[in-house]
């Protein structure tokens, strides 16, 4: 497992691209606040920003990166293709709009936000995902994206893609936090050299009042948020905490100066249903 020692320590994707091992999330960050909070995150030292077309805040991310004084290549930017834009042609058009919003001529990582699922699309679901993926492969081959991946794909969605793709996904971004450990999906991805990114790594804050996490946090003189994030990176997954408060944005970076024991990792991993959305991915209607 690749070990991280600081906020900018990279993990290496299957294609050799380096990705900073902790990212800054922007889901539900209002577009009008995005420039300010992303600027703060960059000044604190984050070099990896996660956004999506759905969030409506790509422009704020792009402007913050532009005005940061950092070179474009010093910041790793991820965005995602929304569900209404599935299919080859729509995916290409939506990607171009994302580049425009971000005021950049390439993306570091582009993800299919959610798989088309059988509940909505029946037997066509896998084919729709593959058709969308062909657009990602072509954009990658043209050098417009440095790495391509998926989000919210479980092994049953990944199987068909892995069998039929020319280029395998390098990343899968899924919900992971204490209380929603996703052990099987993580093992599956790690076996296939797909980096798992954790969305809602704090269980959307609801995990933070758990007594087990509080007790462990006290032992290390850290916070429960830091323990949640540490539990992620010690499994080789990449957490994407979101906050619009500067003190918390910074707090969430202090996770490289303590180490959970194997027992603590297991105890945290055995917690169940603490916050987040805990969605069964084949049942969603969007
Ligand atoms: N691919 C997907 O489908 C998907 C889905 C959801 C999320 N994501 C990505 O993953 C990122 C993280 O997920 P998330 O935003 O849903 O949940 P999260 O990061 O688990 O939790 C965010 C919540 O925790 C609070 N918080 C953050 N740091 C804190 C701290 N140190 N102490 C106390 N409270 C704290 C935030 O409040 P304040 O902001 O008020 O500080 C916010 O309410 C998103 O922003 C997005 O980039 C992806």
Automatic annotation (TrEMBL):
NADP-dependent oxidoreductase domain sequence ranges: 23-271
Keyword Transferase among record annotations: no
Database matches in InterPro entries: AKR, Aldo/ket_reductase_CS, NAD(P)_OxRdtase_dom_sf, NADP_OxRdtase_dom
A Pfam family it matches: Aldo_ket_red
Keywords: NADP, Oxidoreductase
Swiss-Prot/TrEMBL site (Lowers pKa of active site Tyr) positions: 80
Class of this enzyme: oxidoreductase
Catalytic residue list: 55
Any GO MF annotation of the entry: oxidoreductase activity, acting on the CH-OH group of donors, NAD or NADP as acceptor
EC number: 1.1.1.-
UniProt binding sites for substrate: 113
Keyword Signal annotated: no
Annotated signal sequence range: none
PANTHER family in the cross-refs: 2,5-DIKETO-D-GLUCONIC ACID REDUCTASE, NADP-DEPENDENT OXIDOREDUCTASE DOMAIN-CONTAINING PROTEIN
Family of this protein: Belongs to the aldo/keto reductase family.
Name of this chain's protein: Oxidoreductase
Organism the protein comes from: Ligilactobacillus salivarius (strain UCC118)
């Amino acid at each position: 497992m690749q070990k991280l020692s600081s906020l900018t320590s990279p993990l290496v994707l299957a294609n050799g691209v380096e990705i900073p091992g902790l990212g800054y999330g922007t889901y539900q960050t209002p577009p009008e606040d995005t420039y300010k909070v992303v600027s703060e995150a960059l000044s604190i030292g984050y070099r990896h920003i996660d956004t999506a077309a759905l969030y409506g805040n790509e422009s704020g991310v792009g402007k913050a990166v532009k005005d940061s004084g950092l070179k474009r290549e010093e910041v790793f930017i991820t965005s995602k293709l929304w569900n209404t834009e599935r299919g080859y042609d729509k995916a290409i058009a939506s990607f171009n709009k994302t580049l425009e919003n971000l005021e950049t001529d390439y993306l570091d990582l582009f993800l299919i936000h959610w798989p088309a699922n059988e509940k909505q699309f029946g037997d066509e679901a896998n084919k729709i995902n593959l058709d969308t993926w062909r657009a990602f492969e072509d954009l990658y081959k043209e050098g417009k994206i440095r790495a391509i991946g998926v989000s919210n794909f479980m092994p049953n969605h990944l199987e068909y893609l892995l069998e039929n793709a020319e280029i395998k996904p390098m990343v899968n971004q899924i919900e992971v936090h204490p209380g929603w450990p996703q052990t099987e999906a993580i093992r599956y991805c790690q076996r296939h050299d797909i980096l798992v990114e954790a969305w809602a790594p704090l269980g959307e804050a609801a995990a933070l009042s758990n007594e087990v996490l509080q007790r462990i946090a006290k032992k290390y003189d850290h916070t429960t948020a830091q323990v949640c994030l540490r539990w992620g990176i010690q499994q080789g997954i990449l957490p994407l905490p979101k906050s619009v408060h500067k003190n918390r944005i910074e707090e969430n970076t202090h996770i490289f100066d303590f180490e959970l024991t194997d027992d603590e990792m297991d105890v945290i991993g055995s917690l169940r249903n603490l916050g987040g959305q805990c969605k069964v991915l084949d049942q969603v209607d969007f």
